[in-house]
């Protein structure tokens, strides 16, 4: 389970929950498929792209989907969201199109691209109705808009990166020491999540604290722990890669 789920399991009385610390990003990176909930597709802050031809789309498509015919996909790169961390779900009635489109969009630099296999059947099986008529379209002049919606306690990637090289924040890296040594944000301090409560003396009360991990799960647990202890704190709910050289990428 995720670190967040493990924390809840401990609160509910479970003694030895196991944590898959690399989480969903590692699962996807290994080439495994993921299956979204229909509630996430219906109301989540996501981008949905229908790869079928226009005539097929008009007969019925998942509401909120943009139509980008697979055969024309490579002409639509500039119409995709400006944010490379946007969660993008691609679907079609042909699995080979979904797989190929997923590779293409990842090659453009998008970090959270998901092939939604069997999307139409899953949508109908959940009791939902396909929308008929023309779907949303995108172009270079009217690109697909997506903006991250921050939850309670989250700091935006923009605010985090602006503050990182200043004296405004104290960054706590909640990952393992091994992860920290493999690369970390400049100036961040390694305090693994499981040791955080016993090392509160190392975290200043006169600074604004930001907790982070690799994907946001451990960061959120650390945020809640420090908030209960009276700290001014937020967490970075984003995926990141840090290089030993000090360079990093966040999405």
From TrEMBL:
Record's keyword terms, sorted: Pyruvate, Transferase
Molecular function terms, GO-annotated: transferase activity
Top-level taxon: Bacteria
Pfam families, sorted: Rhodanese (PF00581)
InterPro entries registered for this protein in UniProt: GlpE_sulfurtransferase, Rhodanese-like_dom, Rhodanese-like_dom_sf
Entry keyword annotation includes Nuclease: no
Keyword ATP-binding belongs to the record: no
Entry-linked PANTHER family: FAD-DEPENDENT OXIDOREDUCTASE, PYRIDINE NUCLEOTIDE-DISULPHIDE OXIDOREDUCTASE
Record's protein name: 3-mercaptopyruvate sulfurtransferase SseA, contains two rhodanese domains
Species this protein is from: Desulforhopalus singaporensis
Organism lineage: Bacteria, Pseudomonadati, Thermodesulfobacteriota, Desulfobulbia, Desulfobulbales
């Amino acid at each position: 389970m995720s670190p967040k789920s493990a924390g809840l399991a401990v609160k509910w009385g479970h003694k030895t929950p196991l944590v898959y610390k690399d989480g969903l990003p590692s699962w996807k990176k290994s080439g495994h498929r993921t299956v979204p909930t229909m509630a996430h597709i219906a109301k989540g802050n996501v981008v949905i792209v229908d790869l079928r031809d226009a005539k097929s789309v008009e007969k019925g498509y998942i509401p909120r989907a943009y139509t980008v015919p697979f055969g024309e996909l490579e002409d639509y790169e500039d119409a995709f969201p400006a944010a490379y961390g946007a969660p993008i779900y691609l679907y079609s009635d042909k699995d080979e199109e979904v797989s190929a489109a997923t590779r293409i969009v990842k090659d453009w630099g998008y970090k959270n691209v998901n092939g939604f296999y069997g999307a139409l059947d899953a949508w109908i099986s959940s009791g939902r109705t396909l929308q008929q008529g023309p779907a949303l379209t995108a172009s270079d002049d009217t690109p697909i808009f997506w903006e991250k919606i921050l939850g309670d306690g989250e700091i935006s990637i923009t605010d985090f990166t602006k503050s990182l090289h200043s004296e405004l924040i104290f960054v706590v890296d909640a990952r393992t020491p091994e992860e920290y040594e493999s690369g970390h944000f400049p100036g961040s301090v390694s305090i693994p999540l499981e040791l955080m409560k016993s090392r509160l003396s190392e975290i200043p009360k006169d600074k604004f604290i930001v907790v982070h991990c690799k994907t946001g799960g451990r960061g959120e647990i650390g945020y809640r722990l420090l908030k209960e202890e009276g700290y001014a704190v937020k967490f970075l709910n984003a995926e990141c890669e840090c290089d030993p050289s000090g360079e990093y990428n966040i999405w």
